[in-house]
Amino acid sequence: MTKKSIWSTASILLVSFLITFNAQAQDQALSVDEVLTLFYQRNLDLIAAQYNIDQSVADAIIASAIPNPTFGFQMLELSRNLNNNSVATGGCTQNTSCGPAQYYSFSQLIEVAGKRGLRIQSSGFAIQAAESDFRDAIRIFSNMVRDGYYQLLQTQKNRWLAQEIVDHYQTVTKANDLRMKSGDIAESDFLRVKMEALRAESDLDNAQTAVTMAQADLAVILRWPEQSLQFEAKEEWPVVKDIGQQLSQDELINKALQQRPDLQADKLRAEQADKALELAKRLKYPDVTVSAGYARDPSNNALNSGFVGFSVPLPLFYQYQGETDKANVNLSQSRLTAQQTELGIRNDVVSALATWKSADKIVSRFKEGLLDDALAVRNSSELAYNKGATSVLDLIDAERSYKNVMHDYYAAEINRANAYYDLEKSLGVELNSVKTLSSKTR
After folding, report:
1. Cα 433 to the chain's mean position, in Å?
2. Which one, of 121, 128, 64, lies nearest residue 275 by Cα?
3. In degrees rounded to 5, what are phi and psi of residue 221?
4. Scanning 35, 111, 394, 397, which has its CA 20 to 30 A from the CA of 258?
5. Which bin fits 407, alpha (ψ -120 to 50), beta or left (φ > 0)?
């Protein structure tokens, strides 16, 4: 698959997303798929160039090329002076010239022992390995972009929470101002609530700073497009699909071993190294150069004549043992790399599966009642405080507990989203938004 066909497929995919992006240019609220599309729209050329798909295709063309024939031409006997004792039999004398002799030759190298076929097979494996590297880059970079996106979403959620608490304290402070004037509460209680309100405003400032930094980090990943600092992550959590979460650990590992493009690339390189070893072994079988030609020699008995012949290098002193040993070492290293990648995949799947199960359970606990309980405690504490049935310390403690629970909940949601995508990454599941593109590189 050439780069031209890859780009044509990518253009159709990217334009459809950019239409949606331009339609929402005012608020700049982007989904994770739109951010991914923007990333690949700006970085696809660099990623493809890094993994040298075009170079692999060019190498395949070189490997399949048939050696060009060689044409030769010679002119002999250009001197008009002849020795007295070398009178030409065809009537040429010392004072008479029959013209120079002309020799035309044609030679062709013929490769034997299937060397060209092995080179073609080896280069084919190299192309497939480069394409697998490209798909693996998409897998890795996609997760990197999503991590940056959800980091931005988490800071936004924390900012929203900080703003909510500031607004809440402003409401309580206004009510306390009226109560203090009427002698309902002590000045010390009023000041404590006011200090907590100021602390909440400081938390809001810090939250805004965190959002700006997260936007800048995402802008760096996206190569700093225009209005990048106005990007806002939509509150969209991943739709959890059946990617094998319910399978046993061994079944998931087997699924990953079949799908992971990095392992496929290593196995293809091992196949390429195997073909290179076979080619090195066949170098000891010499190639044959066949020659044929025509000669016109006026000073010869036979004016016009032809000739044929062949030449073969004799591997008497060197039989390419160095090339064979080098190819053998390369094959062993390629197989070892594939084994190490397989071990890494097994570890990735086990770790990602455990992290996903833990993150999913934590979010479920929050949704099953912890969030409602935290909100109910805060509301009841505020109601009791307004009626004078509880102290200001209980109010502040309830507010802090609510804030901590919400912070933990947002972090749990982000961890769950990242854990889901990490599980997809460990299994080698391709993104829907780039699946068409990456499948074209196979």
Report:
1. 14
2. 121
3. -60, -40
4. 35
5. alpha
Give the C-alpha separation, 240 to 305, whole Å: 83
* Strand bridging mode 232-233 / 29-30: parallel
54-94 pLDDT, tens digit per residue, is 888 888 999 999 999 999 998 877 765 545 444 444 455 54
pTM of the model: 0.78
25 pLDDT tier (thresholds 50, 70, 90): very low
Biggest CA pair distance of the chain: 145
| Cβ(32)–Cβ(212) below 8 Å | no
**pLDDT at position 44, please?**
76
Q: Give the C-alpha separation, 279 to 289, whole Å.
A: 19
Q: Which residues of 33-55 are buried (b: 16+ CB within 10 A; e: fewer)?
A: bbbbbbbbbebbeebbeebebee
Contacts of 405 (CB under 8 A, 6+ apart): 366, 370, 371, 374
Structure-token pair, residue 333: 């290293």
Q: For the chain, list the domains and their CATH numbers.
A: 3-78+98-439 (1.20.1600.10)
CA–CA gap between residue 412 and residue 418 (Å, rounded): 10
pLDDT digits (tens, 9 = 90+) for 230-263: 788 998 888 888 888 888 899 999 999 999 999 9
Of 188 and 313, the structure prediction assigns the larger pLDDT to 313
Residue-by-residue DSSP string for 329-394: HHHHHHHHHHHHHHHHHHHHHHHHHHHHHHHHHHHHHIIIIIHHHHHHHHHHHHHHHHTTSS-HHH
Q: Considering the chain, what is the average pLDDT of its residues?
A: 84
Q: Provide the token pair at 5.
A: 């066909």
C-alpha–C-alpha distance, residues 42 and 34, integer Å? 12
Question: H/E element holding 166?
Answer: helix 115-181
Decide if pLDDT at 22 tops 50.
no
Edge-to-edge, what's the strand order for the sheet holding 101-110? 70-76, 101-110, 288-296, 304-311
What residues form DSSP beta bridges with 311?
A: 289
**pLDDT exceeds cutoff 50 at 106:** yes
- The DSSP-derived string for 87-114 is --TTS--TT-----EEEEEEEEEE--TT
Using the predicted structure, report yes or no on whether residue 387 has a pLDDT greater than 70: yes
Is 257 in contact with 348 (CB distance < 8 Å)? no
